[in-house]
Amino acid sequence: xxxxxxxxxxxxxxxxxxxxxxxxxxxxxxxxxxxxxxxxxxxxxxxxxxxxxxxxxxxxxxxxxxxxxxxxxxxxxxxxxxxxxxxxxxxxxxxxxxxxxxxxxxxxxxxxxxxxxxxxxxxxxxxxxxxxxxxxxxxxxxxxxxxxxxxxxxxxxxxxxxxxxxxxxxxxxxxxxxxxxxxxxxxxxxxxxxxxxxxxxxxxxxxxxxxxxxxxxxxxxxxxxx
Length: 226
Prior knowledge:
With 226 residues, the chain is an alpha+beta fold.
């Protein structure tokens, strides 16, 4: 396989995995992945990313605390808006289509609010992954650094695919920043950006059969020629 083909395979095989095997990921492998992700571009090379790698007992404590917050109906306290405040098309339709695909695979019927809540709650266990990653950014940085952060996260996910690992980027982890901050000792000067599950996909997990559709190039690209 050529280098370009290997990159193509990593890109096209990357997906959000929502069920992991418990097999541990060696710390050396995680370090290698983060070093590769650190090659992502950033404006003036400021490299705004900060990463908390959570495994073992620390991961159990974090997932217990997040799950308790979710189950007790603790109000979410997200420090930034990830999704649109007001939904409109085509974004609302795309979101609904993905949601119904996922719920169908998970056996959640329309109107089953308890089932939907349980599925949402699986975010806070990192879907059973042996590694939970929590990403933070200095609060005083601007939107350009958040763009840089997205490139870092994507590079990390593609590097993971190159090692036969899977991921799930999780905005939900930022829903309870106080809980995360307290568990991991994150200072108030940093915002929780998101989390990410890392590990080996469980082939028996029904939700892992989900394949999100993508829009054709013609729907979002305009070619200016001549």
